[in-house]
Design brief:
The protein is α/β, with parallel strands linked by helices. It folds into three domains: about 90 residues, Orthogonal Bundle (Arc Repressor Mutant, subunit A); about 140 residues, Aspartate Aminotransferase, domain 1 (Alpha-Beta Complex); about 240 residues, Aspartate Aminotransferase, domain 2. It contains 16 helices and 16 strands. It has an eight-stranded mixed β-sheet, with helices on both faces. The two termini are about 40 Å apart.
């Protein structure tokens, strides 16, 4: 492999530059088919980049059919063909007309962060490893019996015609409940302003496919939800990051970015922010709504679990301050009920909602009517309120316990957020300590966490980790934090020893 030049001043992400340059060398024959490529660690050291950058580039090249990996042997240029497999007699021959399928077929959509996250989190499922990486609700709190009874009731008493091909906008009963919920939190909306989606992730995908085109700028918080970054970049958007502090996204910086880039969309998680757990102040929410109105900017407000606010009621939604229809409010029932239901809702008005309904028709036509009707019956029951209270109290105890253990065990160089809502918090790492190094050292100690680098719309720094407290009992999470603290202390000790050695060599 010839020299790989990366432009660190370019707006093109480093992994994309690396992907494009290796792809060029393979296509031009500078790298011959069958050539073994450097390992992820080796190439990362050579280029002075994060291993995540190399993983993302290699994933993209694999999707293009330009490279393949063989367990125990390495990564090689060229797609899978019989000539590259050592034991040809053990392989089913590939028909000639199919051998060039991967190289000849362009790939227009990739998910490098999601793919990397899934690959890196597999070790967390090993026996004996404590995972603090999930960011998911506790399955023991799922209302399985209630939903099971209601499911049977719906099947027994409802007119079967409701199970026909449904309206793309969603079940009227569920939309009425959502509209009433919106009214209770200050958002003016009726059932006609609601679109039911297959989770909040589909809602973002519909918005991105409808309103964002290649080359459009999109503002996102930094850090933010890694899947959102993949969805937006998959549309060819250029991302610009808004720093997040203890009061949420810095609206003053967002204002300057809007004036500079004239973005098409701004994506924000103002309550229960993922990955930091912070909550945006009321004043900033008002400012953000005014920013959208002043600059004709669409704002996507992602509300995954504001019901899990631990230090008093969450502030009113940004949408509650929206007088011009520039805010698209999205809520989800994945955290508050069950992720497997895959139900979310978009609250929008006028032409914006009409365009999204059209996009829903093209995507999957409608969300399951049976699931929607069952969910509506559950949300309308007193049991939902009781279950929500139990879950909120449980998660608050787990958050408080994790904060105590962090204070007791973490070295002074490490900082962390105080999550006021949601499931996650952010550990800020000091200069010289990278998230990949902490991740790998943590696995050696038997703990897995989520690398914050994947939550950034730009190349680190700042570097950090996302840790989650919702899906582990207090004693299990406490042991996980103690293991993580040992890993970090070990890395800091080695780093200080290397500094002393460097100083000694310099003075001698």
């Amino acid at each position: 492999m010839k020299h790989l030049a990366l432009d660190r001043t370019s707006q093109t992400p480093l992994y994309r530059q690396l992907h494009q340059e290796i792809a060029r060398q393979i296509r031009t024959g500078e790298i011959n088919v069958g050539t073994r490529l450097p390992s992820v660690r080796g190439l990362a050291r050579t280029l002075s980049v994060s291993p995540i950058t190399v993983v993302q580039a290699y994933n993209a090249l694999t999707a293009d059919g330009l490279i393949h990996a063989t367990v125990g042997r390495g990564t090689f240029a060229g797609g899978y063909t019989p000539e590259l497999v050592p034991s040809r007699d053990l392989v089913t021959p590939v028909p000639e007309e199919r051998q060039d399928f991967h190289p000849a077929t362009p790939v227009h959509l990739r998910a490098p962060r999601i793919t990397a996250m899934q690959a890196l989190l597999r070790p967390g499922r090993r026996p004996g490893v404590i995972s603090l990486a999930g960011g998911t609700p506790d399955p023991s709190l799922f209302p399985l019996r209630s939903l099971g009874r209601l499911w049977s009731r719906v099947m027994a008493v409802e007119d079967p015609r409701f199970l026909q091909y449904g309206s793309p906008q969603g079940d009227y009963h569920l939309r009425t409940w959502v509209a009433d919920h919106c009214q209770s939190i200050g958002i003016k909306a009726g059932p006609e302003d609601i679109l039911v989606t297959s989770g909040s992730q589909q809602a973002l995908d519909l918005v991105a496919r409808t309103f964002v085109g290649p080359g459009d700028f999109v503002l996102v918080e930094s850090p933010t939800f890694s899947t959102a970054l993949d969805i937006l970049e998959g549309r060819g958007a250029k991302l610009a990051g808004i720093p997040v502090d203890k009061d949420g996204a810095r609206v003053d910086i967002a204002t300057s970015l809007v004036e500079r880039y004239r973005p098409r969309l701004l994506y924000t998680i103002p309550t229960a922010h993922n990955p930091t757990g912070t909550t945006m102040t009321e004043d900033r929410r008002r400012q953000l709504a005014a920013l959208g109105r002043r600059h004709n900017l669409l704002i996507f407000e992602d509300d995954t679990c504001s019901e899990f606010a631990y230090d008093g009621e969450a502030p009113q939604a940004i949408k509650a301050h929206d007088t011009s229809g520039h805010v698209i409010f999205v809520l989800s029932f994945s955290k508050t009920v069950i992720p497997g239901l895959r139900v979310g809702c978009v609250v929008a008005h006028g032409p914006i909602l009409a365009r999204l309904i059209e996009a829903k028709l093209l995507a999957d036509r409608f969300t399951s009517p049976l699931i929607q009707r069952t969910l509506w019956r559950y949300l309308s029951s007193h049991q939902y309120t009781r279950d929500l209270r139990t879950a909120r109290d449980t998660y608050r105890r787990r958050r408080d316990a994790m904060l105590r253990v962090l204070k007791e065990t973490m070295p002074a160089e490490i900082g962390w957020t105080h999550p006021s809502a949601g499931f996650n918090m952010w550990l800020q790492l000091p200069d010289g300590l990278s998230a990949p190094d902490v991740f790998e050292e943590g696995l050696k100690e038997g703990v897995a966490c989520a690398m914050g680098d994947l939550c950034l719309p730009h190349v680190p720094p700042p570097s950090g980790l996302r840790i989650s407290f919702a899906d582990n009992h207090e004693e299990v999470a406490a042991e996980g934090i103690r293991r993580l603290a040992r890993a970090i202390k070990g890395l800091l000790t080695r780093a200080k020893g290397e500094e002393r050695d460097a100083e000694f060599v310099t003075t001698v």
